[in-house]
Amino acid sequence: MIKCFFHRILLGYILSNRLINETSLYLLQHAENPVDWYPWSSEALAIAKASDKPILLSIGYSSCHWCHVMEKESFENDTIAKIMNEHFINIKVDREERPDLDYIYMSAVQSISGQGGWPMTVFLTPDRKPFFAGTYFPPEDRNGIAGFPTILLSVSDAFNNRRNDVQSVSDNVVQRIAQVNYRQFSGAEFPATSLANAKNEIIKEVDWNNGGIGSEPKFPQPMIYEFLLSRNYSNSEDQIIKAVTKTLDLMMFGGIYDQLRGGFHRYSTDKFWLIPHFEKMLYDNALLAKLYLNAYKVFGEIQYSKVVIEILDYVRDEMLLNNGGISSSQDADSDLGEGIYFAWQPNEIDSILGKTNGHLIKKYFGVTKSGNFDGFSILSVPTKTDDFIQKEKLRKQDFEELLLDAKSKMLDVRYKRNAPQTDDKVLCSWNSLMISAYAKSGISFGNKEYISIAKNTGDFIEENMIDNGKLFHSSGDRRVKSFGYLEDYSFYGIACLDLHEATFDSKWIRRAIWASEKILENFWDSSQEMLFDTLETSDDLLLRPRDIYDNAVPCGSSIAVELLYKIGLLTGDERLLKVAKIVVDSILPVAEKAPVGLGQWLCSADMMMYDTKEIVIIGEATDSKTFDFVRKVNSIYLPSKIVVAVSESDPLLQEILFLKGKKMLNGLVTAFVCQNYECKEPTNDLDVFYEQLISK
Fold this sequence. Notes:
By secondary structure, the protein is an alpha+beta fold. It has four domains: 12-182, Glutaredoxin (3-Layer(aba) Sandwich), CATH 3.40.30; 192-335 and 423-610, Alpha/alpha barrel (Glycosyltransferase), CATH 1.50.10; 340-419, no CATH class; 613-694, Glutaredoxin, CATH 3.40.30. It has 26 helices and 24 strands. Helix 17 (428-445) runs parallel beside helix 19 (486-503) and helix 20 packs across helix 21 (556-571). The longest helix is centred in the middle third of the chain and has 20 residues, at 396-415. 50% of the residues are buried.
């Protein structure tokens, strides 16, 4: 008989289950459900086998709106919980802690139901094989759609009375997942036309009226626009420029962007970027900060730089932890309801600003009596600021001062509302993305605070998430959980390169080299010529996952290719260069025909196809001129570059092949620009250095 783990408290009826001992906010949010939840563990899997019960696997994340809805409707319902406890071993997983499980079982959901999303609901045999799956289920039958209790009883009946059919279905699903996971692509060297073809396929999907790709719902997809910027660097095209600027403009003026505080919400439910799903994810804001920074360098649009600064200031103020780590997300919901924390009504703005100023600000932000979101208004900027000023016949300085004051006062009121919860779980991969955003922006803007934040977060990972030569994936409540995945090593390695560029500390170069070596050691299968997402020793999985798609976050492999290639060029390690080329050659035929889900692959391929600029700056970290040279590099959009900045006495100059023989000229900071195994004349002159950088 299975022992129930509930604790009852005399006053009221409060339950706590096994999740009460977890560190994940998402799991803790379910710790008082009447459901007898287990975390994913050997204990839960063993009990499922011993009791011969099917597993109900529920996967979600703390900031997911529909995860909260299903919890309130079903998992807090005593009647539904009783059915779950009687017929199933119930396992709850935080997808952010276990991206490997999320990938495997989302593949099953898509295979079985033809769609995917969260909350993910998967029914498994005791040996972990999926045989039925879906996402959100309502608590009762609705409009011909089976409710969750009906689903539960039907699945239990099938498992107990039609076991052979269930086994056959589960075997078939696993076979289909494995075929996709291990599929081989062409290993032929890709032609130069592949990237142009991929660009053309993307252009076909652009919404020229509203920006973005396709119709609603619309996701930011920053990697696609990074690729378009890279293509534009090689060969400027009006179509590319319009596709990028139209999208970036409408996103930053839309409701998907927090007009008061900065930071992007997850995605837009409509094609106009107006009404978002309100969770704010660390990875979105890291990737979008980098995209807007690069777009600022290309187009010189000052508003793009403001977006970067607003994002990074928002993360600093609301997501940065005292220990240097950065929280993973902020919820879509608060006690006010989904999104209401960010929404406004006209009379509220009038009471804050007065009727005259309130009228102008409401007009600027598109606030109306009827609203655009359940009687409330989500702030957007329907008319660009300069056009609005001209239309309303205002003085620019006066309106800008009024707008700044209005934002400050409205924020003060918003801060008095109960805010959505922040998930303070620290994920190595996502923190690494934000390290890169802070480091790159810090150098580009000359902002030493941003560089300090990047360094402190890098130090946090080094001190808390690396142990005995292994990187860990997540950290919470002073505990690290699960060994790192490919994405952790890849993103961390790139972050280390960016940290080195920002701090001139050669330890970060050494860390990047270490990460690249660990990738070959732990994730490269030379017999199959594939990079896998997990260590080979992960024994609680149906298969060894290999996600090749760049979804909301780049996949581990596509960033690994960039890291291996850059470190290979730097150190002369042919193994790294060979693996990078093999992997890119195998994926590009797919990316050429279906590029939208493979944006980072295209960026990495573009970097490899067009010779990378290798830049070495020899100077003391304490010399402001050294920073001037590094900042000059970062004032220009260079999609493919490696920068090493070290002092003349740094041992790294003797350890790395590419750096040997390079030294200061005339005792002054000296820059070397090399490309395709040829170096230009070393120079102490910033203007000469700039000309060398911009020459293609």
